Amino acid sequence: MHADDVFKALADPTRRRLLDLLCEQNGQTLGQLCEHLDMARQSATQHLGILEAANLVSTVRRGREKLHFINPVPLHEVYERWVRKFEKQRLSLLHDLKRELEGE
Amino acid sequence: MHADDVFKALADPTRRRLLDLLCEQNGQTLGQLCEHLDMARQSATQHLGILEAANLVSTVRRGREKLHFINPVPLHEVYERWVRKFEKQRLSLLHDLKRELEGE
DNA sequence: TTGACATGCAGGTATTTACCTGCATATCTC
DNA sequence: GAGATATGCAGGTAAATACCTGCATGTCAA
Question: What pLDDT, in 10s, does the model give residues B5-64?
Fold first, then answer.
C-alpha cells in the first residue's frame, strides 16, 4: 500500500465528497459527478485523477463516457495499519495520559 | 469531528512517523521525538502542533519539558465515518465494477 | 546566580496544491 | 458529414505547505 497517496487523496474535502457521491451511486460519469461540485470540470478531473492514483477509484470507458467506481480496499488497508494499531492500545494510552496529569 | 484537520494531519509522512513513535513509547518529549527525525527541531514542533490541532496528540508540560500523548479517539471516528461506510458495501461495489467490465 | 538545556516565537523561501482558462480530441446522433 | 456532447491536455496563478535560520523565554542544577 502507498499510505502517502491514500492519505493525501483523503486530505481534500472535494475528494471525500466524490467518494461519498460514488458511495450513493457507483459508476457515475465525470459529468454526473461534476453536477454536484461547485468547480470547473477540469478541476474535478484532477481530483478524480488523484483518487485513481491512490487506487481509491477505478475507471472504465464506455464510449465517450468515463465511469468511476469506488475501490474500498485501500481504505481497509488504512484501517488495518493506522486505526486498529492505535485502537488496541486505546485504553492504555488514555491511562498513560491520566496518570501523567495526576502527577504519577 | 473535524475530518479535514484529521486527514490533513495524517497526510504527511513525518506526522505519521510521530504517531508511530508515540505508539512505541507514549509521553515522549519534543527532544526525544526529534532524535528520530531528520529535520530541525522547529519543524518537528510545527508537525506536532498540527497533530495537536487535529486532537490526535495531547500535551502536558512537566517543568521545561513538554510530554506528548496519542489520542486515539479521532482515528476511531475516522474509521466509523470513512472506512466502515465503504466496507459495508465492499462486495457490492466490486460487483458493480465487475459487471461493468463484462459489459453488463 | 549562572550556565546549560528544553522549548517558543518570528520571519523567510522553495515546493506543492487547488483552482482556473483555452483549446484539442473523441464519440454519439441526426 | 455536421453539430452537439463528453472528456483530455497544456499552461498559468494564488494560496498553502514544509522546511529553514535566528533569537527569545523559561527551567533546572551546580
Answer: 999 999 999 999 999 999 999 999 999 999 999 999 999 999 999 999 999 999 999 999
Q: Is B60 on the interface with A (CB under 8 A)?
A: yes
**Contact between A33 and A46 (Cβ < 8 Å):** no
User: Which element (helix H / strand E) includes B32?
Assistant: helix B30-34
Which residue of A lies nearest to B78 if distances are taken between CA atoms? A83
CATH 1.10.10.10 fits B3-101, yes or no: yes
Query: What is the four-CA torsion angle of A49, A50, A51, A52, rounded to 10 degrees?
Result: 50
Domain limits of chain A? 3-101
Judged by C1' against the alpha carbon of A4, the nearest nucleotide is C16
Question: Are B19 and A86 inside 8 Å of each other by CB?
Answer: yes
B70–A79: do the CB atoms touch at under 8 Å? no
B66 and chain A in contact, CB less than 8 A:
no
State the CB neighbour count (10 A cutoff) for residue A62. Answer: 12
The answer on pLDDT for B100 being more than 60 is no
* B14 SS3 class: helix
Q: How many Å from the CA of A55 to C1' of C8?
A: 41
Nearest to B7 among A10, A75, A93 (CB): A10
